[in-house]
Specification:
Helices cover 19% and strands 24% of the residues. The protein is an alpha/beta fold and 285 residues long. The protein has one domain: Rossmann fold (3-Layer(aba) Sandwich). Strand 6, helix 4 and strand 7 form a beta-alpha-beta unit. Helix 1 crosses helix 2 and helix 2 packs across helix 6. The radius of gyration is 18 Å and the shape is globular. The relative contact order is 0.16.
Length: 285
């Protein structure tokens, strides 16, 4: 368990994730590198199965987990992984380099049907942490699958709104309908990535300081939908997408007839998240 803060639970140390990195065929960096602390929310997304937390967690090695994404973090640098099991504050975020919020619960999904919602105090704490140099990842979900209203209290502080919509459905298991071409995208996460796979997602609306980094033609009518966006605030930055996207089930997705490269995009994203030159650090007292 992590001793850095009583508000966090360490579920996989860098040693444990290094073993996962070897299992998935990626190399781990020199041991002497200073660990980057990556926090994954387990307060707004808190689901249980057989009495244990699961679904978008570091320690979930099934298709529903993020263990493969964790292996990519460790392939890039020495990393410690925690779950944040309470609302974010400036204090419990201070030592983190990256903070990830995925698929915040609705009443139907939450443990005991008692969801926790982002409020103004939590949003302000996260905004202050980003301004100080933190890197925030927001991964929502389609329509009724996640709490959008309260997460937007936070996202809109960075010029990003998650829309109440649904696209990239795959009727008759036609995966090509959930494949998005990225060849015109110039952001570093799409380097050597011809296309990505995102199934049943919501779109985004952006305004300054946010910027769309991936768009796709609307499924009906004219124009384009924003699929992914980034934002810069103070010394920190934000990445947003309307889907959990890179969990174990889809990180290695292949689509017949399409050159999908989700894993390469995931590795590029991890590299970009960890490249922040000024990370939030504990204050000296």
């Amino acid at each position: 368990m992590s001793n850095s803060s009583p508000a966090t639970n360490t579920v996989l140390t860098s040693t444990g994730i290094a073993a996962l990195a070897l299992f998935f065929g990626v190399s781990s960096p020199a041991a002497e590198a200073r660990p980057a602390r990556v926090l994954l929310d387990n307060f707004y997304n808190h689901e249980t199965k057989d009495g244990k937390r699961y679904h978008y967690t570091w320690d979930d090695k099934a298709s529903s987990g993020f263990s493969k994404l964790g292996a990519l973090f460790t392939a890039e640098t020495s990393t410690t992984f925690d779950h944040l099991t309470v609302a974010p504050t400036e204090e419990n975020l201070r030592a983190a380099a990256v903070y990830i919020i995925v698929d915040p619960d609705t009443e139907n999904e939450a443990a005991n049907h008692a969801p926790h919602f982002v409020d103004a105090a939590a949003a302000e704490a996260v905004v202050r942490w980003v301004k100080a140099g933190g890197t925030l990842v927001l991964m929502n979900n389609a329509k009724e699958e996640a709490d959008r209203e309260h997460l937007n209290l936070l996202a809109e502080r960075f010029g990003i709104t998650f829309n109440h919509d649904l696209r990239n459905q795959t009727p008759a298991r036609n995966r090509q309908l959930a494949t998005v071409d990225t060849q015109a995208a110039t952001h570093p996460i799409f380097r050597e990535v011809p296309s990505v796979y995102l199934k049943e997602i919501c779109t985004l609306r952006v305004r300054p300081p946010a910027t769309a980094i991936l768009s796709a033609p609307k499924e009906t009518g004219e124009g384009a939908d924003v699929i992914m966006a980034t934002s810069q605030l103070g010394k920190g930055r934000v990445f947003a997408v309307g889907d959990p996207w890179l969990y174990n089930e889809y990180i290695n997705t292949q689509v017949e007839g399409r050159n999908v490269a989700n894993q390469r995009a995931a590795a590029n994203l991890v590299r970009w998240l960890l490249s922040q030159p000024t990370a939030a650090q504990p204050r000296t007292r």
